[in-house]
Amino acid sequence: MKRPRLCLLFFGSLLSVYTSWAQSQKATEGKKVSKMDSIQQLQEVVVTATRSERQLGALPMPVIVVSGKQIQKMGSLRLNDVLQEQTGLMPVTNHGNGIQIQGFDPDYTLILVDGEPLIGRTSGTLELSRVTVGNIKQIEIVKGPASSLYGSEALAGVINIITEKPEGLKGSLKGRYGTNETIDITGDFSYKYRKLGVYAFVNRYHTGGYDFTPAEYGNTVDPFTNYTYNTKLTYDFSSRVKLSLSGRYFTESQTSASVVSLEGASDTISGTGKVTDWNINPTLIVKFAPQFKTNFRLYASRYHTSSLLSYEKDNSVYDETFFTQTFLRPEVIAEFSPVKKHTITFGGGGTSESVYATRYTSKKHFSTVYGLFQYEWLANKDLTLIAGGRFDHHSLYGGQISPKLSGQYEILPWLAFRASLGTGFKAPDFRQVYLNFTNSTVGYSVFGIEEQKAGIDTYEALGQIARYLVDSTLLNQTGRLKAERSVAYNAGFKITPIPRVMGNINFFRNNIQNLINTRPLAEKTNGQYIYGYQNISRAVMQGIETDWTYQLNKHLSVSAGYQLLYAYDQDVLDQIAEGKIYIRDPKTLKTSRMKRNQYGGLLNRSRHSGNIKFFYEDSKTGISGSLRGIYRGKYGLTDTDGNGALNEGDEYVKGYMLWNIAMAKTFRKMMTVQAGIDNLFNFQNTAQITTIPGRIVYASLQFVLAKN
């Protein structure tokens, strides 16, 4: 008993000495605060992390803000181009271009536009190239579970795209041409006079596609053209009552051609595909008192795709599909500050979602009712605490509670500690529950949990089951997937050691229960498989991420970021410890029990990733530019030896480094000429042929007219 007491006395003495030292440091370093005012004044205001306007430096959770000005210097056109250059965000290709956050796949990150969700995911991935960046004011990226504010799909984090709003009288027109016959044309108009504000935006994006395998028929990426229209109308009835109405319409058309093989014969097919996506969002803000503000919102959205492929020899139909998703959400959020330094946010709403598609036996529907509460306390000038939670009741999966607690303490004027503890959840989506799909060309099948029994029985009756890969008695029972849940820990420091230098270090760990994974259920007599979904009982994603920015002078800044990630299946680790997993030496062909250090973790996760960026701007000469390097370490692509665990060999894709450069010159604040090269050294990766399309050379011209 003596040792614990001695330890407590020892650490207590250290804490007392440290407290006295910290207080003296604060007194002696007060003069340094004024030197950092210029840095603190540059802190962006964000809304995503707390659903209220807060200064970035005061938030006790990891948040990245990418300004519209920075996006212009990068020369980016689509949302995926911007996100893949941010620390800890990894581009992935899975039925579209998606993004990972802290090791989570794209379907665990909620994508918002002005606080409202984009719908229309394919296999969990929302195609980020659907979103143009021409009207983006800033992008806010909140890492870690945000289910306490946003519910399902925010288990890994939230990406909120804040678009431009009516301001003064101004307009712009921009055109760009680049590699692969890429043409991007953007125009916008803004008008704000007294109570009325109007904003209109239009974008046309076209690419001729590209082909990495000219010896084969068809393109790697086929040509497509899309249009984006965005409007905002605002009216201030008074200083207390404000109304806004925003709408977005997106449409895309694509032509395709390829070769299919069926029963030993090859045929060429071609056709067209179309995507339409629209949403409308009326919002009414009423300030009943200086301390009490209420936000009434209604959001409606519809996403639709259709495709028709025909044989070129006789124009007969090869395949015809469609997919329609609708989403409706009314919501009321109130912010109340009963006394100074205390803010309460509360509210609720409901969602109604439906899907009707060729891959579902009938129209499917989910609904959710939710309520949320958040308490923010500025205890003193050094300490900020935020506590909150949300309750969701899903029509199929019942109630889910998602609490969260976060805080920030300023130890010294240049050093602040912040930490958060929260839970997130994700209910199974439509495909994991109701999907009924068989690939007519290759021959494999995928069934959601509710369709699994009927699908297995059908192939069994036809005598097309060669063998079962799991217990057949379990396959013939309609089960129910459990909602995925995570407990996340984030802790780190915000550091400004010297003027013009800012840094963040964050340690994170996510413990995931019931992670939903695709699994093979049975092998068909044609050699293909029937797939279904199952819960993985335990998975862990943890690591360190850090970002640093140094303003070398008033024109030039440099920033660097790095993430170390460990992502693994705890059940696989247990099997390795029990000696149940074997690997085969590719040279000697001998098998041996797998060791812990031979396990590479979950697929498609890089252990190491980072970036370095240089930004230059001289307002006098009108010259600006950027040079950005993005590194991604090796990652596992597939389990080629079938032992259920990622290990060394051909299961990995090699790491790579990309360099992007852009330069611009502005004349009289009215005309800007820009030129740049993405993927300067023409790196190509067959595993990511859509996210890394080779070297892209471009030039653009922009005209801006403004009267404020």
UniProtKB/TrEMBL annotation:
InterPro entries: Beta-barrel_TonB, Beta-barrel_TonB_sf, Plug_dom, Plug_dom_sf, TonB-dep_rcpt-like. Its main location: membrane. Residues 59-158 form the TonB-dependent receptor plug domain. The keyword Transferase does not apply. PROSITE patterns: TONB_DEPENDENT_REC_3 (PS52016). Residues 189-680 form the TonB-dependent receptor-like beta-barrel domain. It is found in: Cell outer membrane. Residues 1-22 form the signal peptide. Keywords: Cell outer membrane, Membrane, Receptor, Signal, TonB box, Transmembrane, Transmembrane beta strand, Transport. It is a multi-pass membrane protein. It comes from the Bacteria. Gene3D superfamilies: TonB-dependent receptor, beta-barrel domain (2.40.170.20), TonB-dependent receptor, plug domain (2.170.130.10). Belongs to the TonB-dependent receptor family. PANTHER family: HEMOGLOBIN AND HEMOGLOBIN-HAPTOGLOBIN-BINDING PROTEIN 1-RELATED, TONB-DEPENDENT OUTER MEMBRANE RECEPTOR. This is TonB-dependent receptor. It comes from Xanthocytophaga flava.
